[in-house]
Amino acid sequence: MLSSSVLVLNKNYFPVHVTTLRRAFIMLYQGVAKAVDDQYRTFDFHSWAELSVAAHDESVGIVGKMIRIPRVIVLIAYDRVPKRGIRFSRLNILLRDRHICQYCGKTFPRNRLNLDHVIPRSKDGLTTWENIVTSCHACNRKKGGRTPEEARMKLVRKPFKPESVPFFDLSQHRIRYNEWKPFINFIDFSYWNVELEP
Q: Residue 64 — left, alpha, or beta (φ > 0 → left; ψ -120 to 50 → alpha)?
């Protein structure tokens, strides 16, 4: 049980790591993290230990008592995201372009954006960081299978390969808990974070 998984969030509630329950208890006890319950309330080690375990299935014994298992903890001072190799994925392209259509410059929710080949595939355009941008549905239809110059459209910003993207890759972790769901949408995760093929 002490080797089971706990999701670690930075102080902005962004997933940055998965650790063991043993390490999570140490971080709680040392005061570098707080436990997060299902109502997004935070607790230090002592207040977490005082919570009733009767209504909660998961608990572990410590000296003289039982304590609920926290499945999510938030770091008190850490606001960065660990640097990792950059994955060429839909999500990372959206993050690079900040959900902004690279033709009209407007911000859209994820479901109202497409990925567009600046130089279309029909004209031998490659599926690379330097040739893919986010575009809204209207701009995507307007551009069609033409280059921006042919469609008389201008790019807001030239596409580039970012050095890093603030995203935590949970694909390597098979065990997932209901308590993690508010912080990670797994259905979206698979589609948006799968690596694109050139």
A: left
What are the residues facing 60 on neighbouring strands?
67
> Quick check: 136 and 101 in contact, CB under 8 A?
yes
User: Is residue 152 left, alpha or beta, with left meaning phi > 0 and alpha meaning psi from -120 to 50?
Assistant: left
Question: Which residue, among 30, 26, 32, has the nearest Cα to 9 in the 3D structure?
Answer: 32
Q: pLDDT tens digit string along 31-66?
A: 999 999 988 899 999 899 888 665 556 767 666 677
Instruction: Please identify which residue in the block is written with the tokens 């002490």.
Output: 2
**What are the boundaries of each domain within the chain?**
5-82+168-189, 83-164
- Could you tell me the fold of the domain covering 83-164? DNA Binding (I), subunit A (1.10.30)
CA nearest to 95, candidates 148, 168, 155: 168
Tokens of 128: 């690379």
Mean residue pLDDT of the chain comes to 83
Report the C-alpha gap between 104 and 136 in whole angstroms: 8
